[in-house]
Amino acid sequence: MYGELGLFIDGAWRKSGGGKGEDVINPATEKPLARLPHASKADLDEALESAKQGFAIWRATSAYDRCKIMHKAADLMRERHDAIAKIMVLEQGKPYPEARGEVIVSADIIDWYAEEGRRSYGRIVPGRGKGVRQLVMQEAIGVVAAFTPWNFPVLTPARKVGGALAAGCSLILKASEETPGACVEMVRCFADAGLPKGVLNLVFGVPSEVSEHLLTKDAVRKISFTGSIPVGKHLAQLAAKSMKRTTMELGGHSPVVVFADADPEKAADTIAAFKYRNAGQVCISPTRFYVQEDVYPRFLKRFTEYAKGVKVGDGLEKGVAMGPLANARRLDAMDAFVADAKDRGGKIQTGGTRRGNQGYFYEPTVITDVPDDSKIMTQEPFGPLAPVVTFKTFDEVVERANSLEFGLAAYAFTTSSTTAAAISDALESGMVGVNSIAISTPETPFGGVKESGHGSEGGIEGLGAYLVTKFISQG
Q: How wide is the angle at C-alpha 41 spanned by C-alphas 45 and 197, nearest 5°?
């Protein structure tokens, strides 16, 4: 079921020229799935040269013809969704229904960008003098270096590949070394769809070595990165040395505000399902729960019941709602969060421990009575931990929700249209869901503020990230 892995450079699959690599581990069994080759510096240089040649071809290809190839790639992703999803479960751990949904949505992202690329319009500005034409044009920025994490092995690459290709750019994609297989299959769909060689290249390696090698090259004009805040800051510094454009989708610590006028049981069911999706390993996962005192007992009871009922196991088993964490590092991180919460007076309502002695499984966890300065309330947990605390007033909860450097996503529940508008305006976040968790779709912008990054993926903003503006005055 798990295929052979390789680098994709200049339209061909290959092993590394340097011979280095690493094993890909199944997080449910802790057993190796395959050997992943790492790109040597010579491989990276060849990928860059290929991308330069691919850019010359692709930028000269009409948006209409680019659209047809992208649609075909998306169709192939749908045809192969079952195989791709099973590969994703094996290497990443998420349950099969989530993996299947990710592949289908990723195909939708490619389709949406394919169409939007045909609408990358310029405009004519009336000139001041007779016979003067003033044109505003949108052009592809050039070669893109894109870096994606392990938690969404197809969706995150699809956002970057879709936006870049629709704009007419070529790119070098460095996907996660921990979850390479599903991305390999997505790239294969583009190759089989007839994408010209060099337009899309896929490499793997030691992340710091790959990024630092590519970011020093003048030919790379755009960086798109999804990952942690410290790494994002480092890459932004490297990019600034040669004024490369950047899109940074970094970490979050999403507050959830449940007002007393909300239906607490309905809110708990909605947000708990979202909390434990992908074992909480989602940058927009709800991670700090503030519940107004009047409805706190009812919300906590329902939320805890939901957490206790989540079936944990191998993502390929029927009925499993939460798989293992992606790696052993996340298990240690969860234990550290829980230990700190207990030391600070926190109470474990359910979970709080690892499950079994094989695989990186952790119990869905609910914690109460933690102070605002505890580790779980100030650092992104990126796991199945849910701290639930109370608040009294609107102004108080806004101050607490906005107190951190994060600003990616936020959620609120209320039946008052006045409160809904007020909390939407007050939350310092790139995305806000009010009575809704649908904040990530192909046609809408996805991105954060403050230290959660800058720029957007998705929507017309995601396409614009790969375009530069040229003004032409013609007399």
A: 35
What is the pTM for the complete model shown?
A: 0.96
Q: Is pLDDT at 451 greater than 90 in this prediction? A: yes
3-state secondary structure of 157: helix
Taking 80 as the threshold, does the pLDDT of residue 139 lie above it?
Answer: yes
> Can you name the CATH fold of 254-434?
Aldehyde Dehydrogenase; Chain A, domain 2 (3.40.309)
Helix, strand, or coil here: 436?
A: coil
Per the annotation, the verdict on 30 as an active-site residue is no
Active-site residue, selected from the candidate residues 46, 177, 249, 380: 249
- The stretch 10-37 carries a mean pLDDT of 93
Q: How far apart are CA 250 and CA 252, in angstroms?
A: 7
Phi/psi at 135 (5° precision): -115, 135
- The candidate with the shortest Cα–Cα distance to 422, out of 437, 409, 404, 434, is 434
Task: Kindly give, in sequence order, each residue whose CB lies less than 8 Å from that of residue 302, ignoring residues fewer than 6 positions away.
Answer: 264, 265, 268, 269, 272
Domain boundaries, the chain: 7-250+450-474, 254-434
Topology at the third CATH level for domain 7-250+450-474: Aldehyde Dehydrogenase; Chain A, domain 1 (3.40.605)
Q: Is 283 a catalytic residue?
A: yes
pLDDT band at 3 (very low <50, low <70, confident <90, very high): confident
Q: Is 314 left (phi over 0), alpha (psi -120 to 50) or beta?
A: beta
Choosing from 67, 169, 189, 283, the catalytic residue is: 283
Q: Is the pLDDT of residue 110 over 90?
A: yes
In 3D space, the residue among 330, 284, 435 whose CA is nearest the CA of residue 25 turns out to be 330
- What integer pLDDT is reported at residue 16 of this predicted model? 75
Cβ atoms of residues 430 and 253 within 8 Å: no
pLDDT tens for each residue of 249-261 = 999 999 999 999 9
Cα-only R_g, the chain: 23
